[in-house]
Write a structure and sequence with these properties.
heterodimer; A: alpha+beta; 6 strands; B: Alpha-Beta Plaits; 5 domains; 4-stranded antiparallel beta sheet; 47% strand
Chain lengths: 92, 390
């Protein structure tokens, strides 16, 4: 079964059963709490970490956060907590 | 907070990683189910992070293959603290003794405070309170607050309410006394003028008015008499009551010189400390005369709750000053003298809000090169003053 077909089936399945896509499709989610805090869930690894840019891989592409004095306050296989002044959030 | 506390209980390490490809190593750590926090990127090839003590063993195989340098920077938490204390039994013993002693001493009353008793004789109150078991050094369980409250109300008739409470090592006795209603004296008498003036208003409440609007009165003149005629036409003597307002002139003065000596700080500062132990004062360092130095003090008193302990630390700052003669303009001197005159009036109790008219006279003082202001104000005041008949 090709990956895009598998993904399509999963999508249809999630839609039909009204299941959260983050669980079924392994979608990444980015929660912003004001400008000072961000939480990335379901990431697939860290690509870049500096105090001005943090990039994480996800199933949908790279999630990039730009800002000042950025710091990772928590890091695990599922979640990244970022603290600092966040100016930009991008999905590449 | 709970997470932090848990991390501290479990123990955690601050480690430093140095080398290329730190991001991929972090991913490897995450894949190995390690939880990391407070990751700080110091430079391009250095990162500092925290991880739980129990997960440290998992890093070893990961580091072995990578071209990285790993250092344990710091150790935090209970396991490390416990290890430290393992070889210091006496410190632990002392700590435990200290805690136990504090807990034991907290079972006693160390301060007794009484509030709200002004008419109750202090020694009697003290005796009763001590008799019921409440005194400094007594056990908290050695007396019953409810019983003491009842005893206080039963023994002192002037009390209407009593509350005894214990807060920590402090016992508070709050008392409320009966408030005697003020009954106006019914003795016969009249309203007399307390100062001379021109009567502007008469409001008669009881008795016979002897003055009317426009009359000039002198100090001590009878304004309202207590005499009145009853329903049978018989003259009776009672207590006069009413308000008599009059216009009164008040006068005051103020003076200001055209030259003034002003203290200017030279910038040299000196400091003195002093330690107070009860009545004993121990100065540390020398003091300087107020003639050449401006003094400012700051005091720190050791206190335990509301109770002040007889130990205080004082810091005295001396700023050296040099006196300079400066000239003051006529307008400034006038303003200064006028302020002084207003202040004198206010100090005499003149209601400045009731001023009807004011007059300012200015005189030059040739000898001392200054200015004198004579300020006259007219105010409307109640001049009535009750005096009982002899």
């Amino acid at each position: 079964m090709k990956p895009f077909f598998k993904q399509r089936v999963k999508k249809q399945f999630a839609k039909a059963l009204e299941l959260p896509p983050t669980v079924v499709l392994d979608c990444a989610s980015v929660n912003l709490i004001g400008r000072e805090e961000a939480r990335i869930q379901n990431h697939k690894g860290l690509l870049q970490y500096t105090d001005r840019c943090i990039k994480a891989r996800s199933f949908q592409g790279a999630i990039e956060l730009k800002g000042e004095n950025l710091e990772i306050t928590f890091f695990s296989a599922q979640e990244i907590h970022i603290f600092g002044r966040i100016n930009q959030v991008m999905l590449k | 907070m709970t997470k932090r506390l848990w991390n501290w209980m479990e123990g955690y390490l601050t480690i430093r990683l140095r080398g290329p490809g730190l991001e991929s190593f972090l991913n490897k750590m995450a894949a190995a189910d390690l939880t990391l926090w407070q990751l700080q990127r110091l430079t391009g090839d250095v990162i500092i992070l925290r991880l739980p003590l129990r997960q440290f063993r998992k890093i070893r195989p990961l580091v072995r293959g990578a071209n990285l340098e790993l250092n344990v920077f710091d150790r935090h938490g209970l396991p490390f603290l416990a290890r430290k204390f393992k070889s210091r039994w006496f410190l632990l013993l002392g700590l435990a003794f200290c805690i136990l002693t504090t807990l034991y001493l907290a079972n006693f009353i160390w301060f007794v405070e009484i509030w709200g008793a002004s008419s109750v004789p202090g020694p009697d109150l003290k005796v009763l309170i001590e008799k019921s078991g409440l005194k400094v050094g007594a056990r908290k369980s050695g007396f019953s607050p409810k019983q003491l409250e009842r005893a206080l109300l039963a023994n002192f008739e002037s009390l209407v309410w009593a509350e005894v409470s214990v807060k920590g090592v402090r016992a508070l006795v709050n008392l409320a006394e009966k408030a005697e209603p003020e009954f106006a004296s019914q003795s016969p008498g009249g309203i007399y003028a307390s100062q001379p003036g021109l009567v502007s208003e008469v409001l008669l409440l009881r008795g016979t008015a002897l003055v009317e609007k426009g009359d000039t009165v002198r100090r001590g003149d009878l304004l309202i008499s207590g005499a009145y005629y009853d329903s049978q036409g018989k003259k009776q003597m009672g207590r006069a009551d009413g308000i008599v307002k009059a216009r009164i002139w008040h006068q005051s003065f103020g003076e200001a010189a055209f030259q003034e000596w002003v203290a200017a700080k030279t910038g040299v500062r000196r400091r003195q400390y002093s330690l107070q132990l009860g009545f004993f004062l121990l100065p540390l360092g020398r003091s300087y005369p107020s003639r050449t130095h401006l003094k400012s003090e700051r005091e720190w008193c050791l206190s335990l709750g509301r109770a002040m302990l007889p130990l205080a630390w004082k810091k005295i700052e001396y700023a050296e000053v040099a006196y300079q003669l400066i000239s003051i303009s006529r307008e400034e001197a006038r303003q200064k003298a006028l302020e002084q005159a207003w202040k004198r009036l206010e100090d005499r109790g003149v209601e400045l809000g009731e001023i009807q008219e004011k007059r300012v006279e200015e005189y030059f003082i040739p000898d001392s090169e200054g200015l004198r202001i004579i300020l006259s104000v007219e105010v409307e005041e109640d001049i009535g003053e009750f005096r009982a008949d002899p």
